[in-house]
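Whiteboard transcription, Tuesday session. T.W. wrote the structure tokens on the left side:
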């Protein structure tokens, strides 16, 4: 078994939705990012890459590379799943926490779990998506941005 953890942050900016776990969540703001700025998937990718000791998302998909501009972050996740399979692992389970005052994540969590499970070729029961505010403290509390943390356990396939 191998364990990995990931963390990602994006600032809020102009826009009317935020991509979270591959789901388009309506919001008063978008996020500032090179790709679609999906903090859930970015944190999850970093956790998967960390578990494999294969660096981080920025090394695999450099922000300096125009190919990743406005990219669908699900393509990053599918790449990580390929790396997992190539090395003889499968996801045991993943636990993800979004930190934001808004948008409310709870109503969208089932759809996010379904998307992530599809891309990681696992059961939705192996993917947890939850959320917390930071009680109006710090940059998330001031609604300046959104953060996500992920922990994964990999098992031999
Ligand atoms: N962006 C968020 C933040 C929170 N939730 C849900 O609300 C519950 C209460 O949050 P507190 O930070 O006040 O404890 C939390 O447990 C989540 O269920 C959410 O859906 N989206
Ligand atoms: C995803 C990448 C893609 O270029 O850019 P961003 O969308 O800015 O997201 P970040 O979380 O900063 O990760 C770095 C990059 O890999």
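and on the right, the sequence the group agreed on:
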């Amino acid at each position: 078994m191998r364990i990995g953890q990931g963390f990602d942050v994006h600032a809020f900016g102009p826009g009317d939705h935020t991509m979270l776990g591959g789901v388009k969540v309506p919001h008063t703001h978008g996020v500032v990012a090179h790709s679609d700025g999906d903090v859930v998937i970015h944190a999850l990718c970093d956790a998967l890459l960390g578990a494999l000791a294969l660096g981080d998302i920025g090394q695999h998909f450099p922000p300096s590379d125009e190919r990743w501009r406005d990219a669908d972050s699900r393509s990053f996740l599918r790449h990580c799943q390929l790396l997992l399979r190539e090395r003889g692992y499968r996801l045991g389970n993943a636990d993800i926490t979004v930190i934001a005052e808004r948008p409310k994540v709870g109503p969208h969590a089932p759809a996010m779990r379904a998307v992530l499970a599809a891309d990681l070729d696992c059961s939705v029961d192996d993917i947890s998506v939850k959320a917390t505010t930071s009680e109006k403290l710090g940059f998330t509390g001031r609604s300046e941005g959104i953060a996500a943390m992920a922990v994964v356990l990999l098992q031999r396939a």
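Someone added at the bottom: The chain has a mean pLDDT of 98.
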